[in-house]
Amino acid sequence: MAKHAAVLDVQEVPTHPLNWLMLSLQHVFAMFGATVLVPLLTGLNTSVALVASGVGTLIFLAVTRFKVPTYLGSSFAYIAPIIAVSERWGVEDALIGGMVAGLVYGLVSLLIRYTGAAWLLRLLPPVVIGPVIMVIGLSLAPTAVNMAMNGADGKYNGLYFLVAMVTLGVTLLAMTYLKGMWSTIPILFGITVGYLVAASVGIIDFTPLQQATFFHVPDFTIPFLSYTPSWNTAALLLIVPVTLVTLTEHIGEQKVTSRIIGRETLLDPGMHRTVLGDGIAKTVASMLGGPPVTTYGENNGVMSITRVYSVFVLGGAAVLAISFGFLGYVEGFIKTIPTPVMGGISILLFGVIASNGLRTLTESKIDLADKRNLTITAVILVTGIGGAALKIGNFSLEGMALATILGIILNLVLPKTTEQVEETTETSTTQSVANNF
Fold first, then answer.
1. H-run or E-run covering 396
2. Across-strand partners of 396?
3. Which of 122, 149, 275, 297 is 20 to 30 A from residue 166's alpha carbon, by CA?
């Protein structure tokens, strides 16, 4: 793998404290919008999410022996199941689901360490993962539209919709026309302009900011201290299967990181360590009361632009995120962001998630004219978006979880054509790399 010319290599330390601070702040800005959006949508605490992302990143860096410059922020994949579980059984059961998802990562890490990863890649091919990712985004579409155009009374509000469209429009313009470092933070641009417009038309309640203090302890929701955890199989079945999708995303993100820094992280320190670090970070984040975290492509973008790959810079960003979590004015300000602003952003972000699923299919050259591929994709999309459910007594498997399981089963039992078998053989490069552990 050809090594890119680095301004700061993976284990190099910035020479000047001010330079170090500015380099780390860039990563904070890149992850901030998406990281705080997830708790805003799911009802979790934004300050806790910031602390959880920082702690999760430090854990990941330590587990990977400070060889993988990666930042971990709130995962969008868990938004829909967290909302569903919280509405039915309470946020505590959703947090338990996040912890168990992290433990599943730990189990997968052990299996990869001793058996290789070819089994994982065969279990979750693009024809399964692509449609599941589309389900994640499309199932959230009603939430985004409702936030964008409906008031607190649930009725259409033209002023809200105007603010949402301005927010969306500015974000799209920023994504399209901004270059360099600025191109990595279009969400922040959109939220900023949308916030100013919302303030000008008088739909912002500034009370949370007025009541905020400079320093505060985030409202952590910790098991056995804040609540007594309980085992809710139905809730776990809604959240834990998302792990199958995020594992695949993890592998993809690590391959991108490898290309940027010029060395194969899936070989050194190894996929078992990157998966383990991600898993422990997920469990700890949920134990604190935040959403599960995941590796962030936004921060990969920052590294690609700046050619600064230092884990010390990423660690500095993590420390800054933790510090921001204890600043009362940061949380107070975030709470004043009006719903239509977040709705405008959500229309784009949830659509991007669905589009990434389609991109997975196209980049993997999945031929939907083939009956086998068409069948798997169709079943996953309809059962996942339609909310199909399998209920036996107190046991319930529904929505995205059911769609994922059905997709895996169909992929295993439906016969492949000769051409598909040959394509599988040709695209086994990642499997070969994974089996070198």
1. strand 395-398
2. 391
3. 297
